[in-house]
């Protein structure tokens, strides 16, 4: 039976149709102001960076910037889907690290490249689905479940090779996936754009995308409207695990070696980008476009700091301040919309 959002039911039966589709679009449109302002800020910072450092607009630097932002961006795309349902996934960094280890171990065992990549992606998606299922069906906070997953999955990454790097002799056809270029454009950047476009189309043109916004806006109303809430929640975590696995595979490909210590803190960078992009941590508002701009904005800031010789500690402080300011802005917009 195909349940539609615009034909809700109550516990006793169907009721009059409500403009839930319009409500979904209203929730999507609420972040347009944030994205517009964010785009302006991004362009201004790019202009300032170009004036402060003549190296900023060089082809080599812009190519490096896209490559450096792509892995965080891919993870942030999956995180956006989770946060839109009012969830959060703290296990993505560990999942990316484990998936990178899995593909390297498989390739060292002479598994064909496509099959090794598929295996790593399946591991990531399965771990995400497990986290989401535990949270959804046992009604446990996603924060706690994925925090436990962060530790347990990272432990698995260490156990796979007793904490040692693996994959010193990866095939060249695989290393080109994460370390190659098409012209001056890194392949990782192209994959980031493709993943973002696919996720944007999922949210905008599919019923599942409407379900994601509906669950994040009002879980109980979505359930009464026939939305399979628990399956939606578990599925977005599976997609988050999948995007984390893609990032893990690409990093292993780019470095030509898999490190169990990789992607530490990646979940915080992804959450910062999603929130800065206008998504509400309470769910129901945000989109891939805002996340995409925010990822580039944070990367430009880090790139500018590096060109100016500023240390990583200072960069951490600035990232934290930006996240706090984004949360304050989201709160102000929530209050204005409520009034």
From TrEMBL:
A single cellular component GO annotation: plasma membrane
Pfam families named among the record's database cross-references? BPD_transp_2
Residues spanning the membrane: 38-59, 71-90, 110-130, 142-161, 181-203, 231-251, 271-301, 313-333
Q: Which membrane topology term applies here?
A: Multi-pass membrane protein
Compartments reported by the entry: Cell membrane
Q: Which GO terms describe its molecular function?
A: transmembrane transporter activity
Highest rank taxon of the organism: Bacteria
Q: InterPro entries recorded for this chain?
A: ABC_transp_permease (IPR001851)
Q: Which coarse location class applies to the principal site listed for this UniProt protein?
A: membrane
Alphabetically sorted, this entry's keywords are: Cell membrane, Membrane, Transmembrane, Transmembrane helix
Q: What's this protein's name? A: Ribose transport system permease protein
Q: Which organism is it from?
A: Klugiella xanthotipulae
Its taxonomic path starts at: Bacteria, Bacillati, Actinomycetota, Actinomycetes, Micrococcales
């Amino acid at each position: 039976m195909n349940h539609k959002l615009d034909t809700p039911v109550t516990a006793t039966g169907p009721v009059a149709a409500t403009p839930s589709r319009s409500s979904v679009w209203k929730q999507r449109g609420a972040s347009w102001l944030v994205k517009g302002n964010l785009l302006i800020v991004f362009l201004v910072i790019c202009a300032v960076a170009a004036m402060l450092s003549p190296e900023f607009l060089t082809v080599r630097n812009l190519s490096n910037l896209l490559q450096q932002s792509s892995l965080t961006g891919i993870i942030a795309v999956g995180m956006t889907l989770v946060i839109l349902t009012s969830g959060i996934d703290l296990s993505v960094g560990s999942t990316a690290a484990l998936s990178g280890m899995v593909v390297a171990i498989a390739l060292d065992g002479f598994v064909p490249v496509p099959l090794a990549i598929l295996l790593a992606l399946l591991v990531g998606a399965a771990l995400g689905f497990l986290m989401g299922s535990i949270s959804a069906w046992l009604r446990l906070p996603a924060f706690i479940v994925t925090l436990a997953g962060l530790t347990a999955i990272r432990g698995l990454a260490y156990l796979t090779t007793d904490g040692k790097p693996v994959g010193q002799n990866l095939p060249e056809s695989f290393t080109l996936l994460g370390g190659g270029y098409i012209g001056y454009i890194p392949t990782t950047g192209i994959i980031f754009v493709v993943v973002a476009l696919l996720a944007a189309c999922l949210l905008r043109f599919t019923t599942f995308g409407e379900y994601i916004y509906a669950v994040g806006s009002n879980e109980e109303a979505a359930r009464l409207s026939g939305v399979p809430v628990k399956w939606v929640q578990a599925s977005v975590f599976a997609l988050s695990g999948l995007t984390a696995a893609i990032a893990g595979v690409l990093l292993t490909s780019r470095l030509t070696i898999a490190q169990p210590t990789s992607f530490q803190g990646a979940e915080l960078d992804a959450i910062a980008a999603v929130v800065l992009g206008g998504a509400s941590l309470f769910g129901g508002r945000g989109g891939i476009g805002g996340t995409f701009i925010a990822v580039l904005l944070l990367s430009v800031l880090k790139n500018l700091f590096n060109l100016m010789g500023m240390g990583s500690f200072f960069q951490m402080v600035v990232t934290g301040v930006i996240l706090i300011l984004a949360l304050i802005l989201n709160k102000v917009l929530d209050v204005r919309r409520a009034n």
